[in-house]
Specification:
Length: about 525
Amino acid sequence: MSDTPEITLHGAARTVTGSCMELRVGKSRMLIDCGLFQGSRTLEALNAETFGFDAARLDAVIVTHAHIDHSGLLPRLAREGYTGPLWCTAPTRDLLGCMLPDAGRIQESETERRNRRADRADEPQAEPIYTEEDAKQACALARPVALEQWFEPMPGVRARLWNAGHILGSASVEIEAGGTRLLFSGDIGPEHKAFHPDPEAPQNFDHVICESTYGNRSREHVMIDERRRLLLAEIKAAMTRGGNLVIPVFALERTQELLLDVAMLINTGQLPHTQVFIDSPLASKTTGVFARHAAELEDMGSGEIFRHAAFHYVGSASQSMRLNSVSGAIIMAASGMCESGRVRHHLRHNLGRRDSTVLFVGFQAVGTLGRTIMDGAARVRISGHDVAVRAQIRRLDSYSAHADQTDILRWINDRRPIVGSIFLTHGEADAMESLRRLLQQEDAAASIITPELGERYALPPRAKARRLSCGRMDMESVVGRDWQNAYADFAVNLKRELSEIESAAARREAVERMRAVLQSYKANRMSRKTRHKL
């Protein structure tokens, strides 16, 4: 068997989430990340599909960072027989100890909640893809390694981690195997990000696998003081309206950045003492990890930050419910894309209020509730409830933990020469295509590849990658908005649109025509089945 490394993309290929790349060298095999797909229900269904590899036969896993789209399937990996090490930085190990058990509890509670829903009473009982206990089993496998220190994750392969500047503990992964030098970017942070130094890594690679989340966008780069001024303006405007300011947050990093800025604004007298509720037990735990690693963080300034008197960490569900009666407060709640967690509860109670504000401070993937709201939906469906959107919808781009197009191009240029191929991953189609064209114009590598899910490539030294097998043919129907997004939009607006028809008779006729369309699809399906049997 050849020792030329081979890579298979099991996730984050032409979509942002689900990071999972398998590297084979001879008879050895390892993963770089094993994350959850997040987005539409169709995309999330991939989380329950059979792995494209045998978990029990893996020799190693390297985890670039603790975000769930990079680590959220590690418990399922352990459940299916993986017992090897999870190599990562020490902060990532500590964060996984918070993130993964919480993800297991969410899997269990979300499954239980869906099974109880009246509109699912006639459906088979669902099972969680993994449990909290599976997550604890995965956490026990974590093996911390220092940045820039060589280690051997499996025979014939050596690796070292480099600061990626994305979140606490995040790393890019350098690998030498079979005479080939590889670099996996992980998620790259922007320049001058709070808490962390700028991303670092060596030069002169055969192949680079690079994220492209913001590959089609260049944000205005703002320093921390300007970012705080922008946040201050949003908070003051929201408080003037009299309602709540709801901020969907990622429990890891985004919450802590916001707490840093709000504390600094209060400590310097720019913002009056404002009640801030952090309604995410996970955010509370990860903030504790940040506090333990405070000596490693930049931009902390002086004065109390994470334990500020204005901050109230909400624990129980009953405490969360009591926030329904609050006005004039800042409520930070997970999840950042509004797909799960307590933020959905707060959106149900605040989206319909004209005096409330929802402020998005992070990436919203296509097909998520957050993206639907941000794109201007007049009504949305949340946990079986139709909710009108009357609140002010605002957005701040200056908190992104991801490099933008300019940052990515600079990062890749600093890695040159790249004599083989650049693989663009972790991006939606338009982001990857925009970045691919720019890299081709700059002759950044011998080839620029935007791989599909399931594709396998050989990674020879000093030559471009060779495709060995094709990927899945159904990804166009999986990525982006799916039929369930379309159904939710249709359902929440149906009654209003019917009421706008001029007469009761005409409205009844419209309903009958819609029913006839559905019945025709059913009849055609039965006809095809009959012909197939014959």
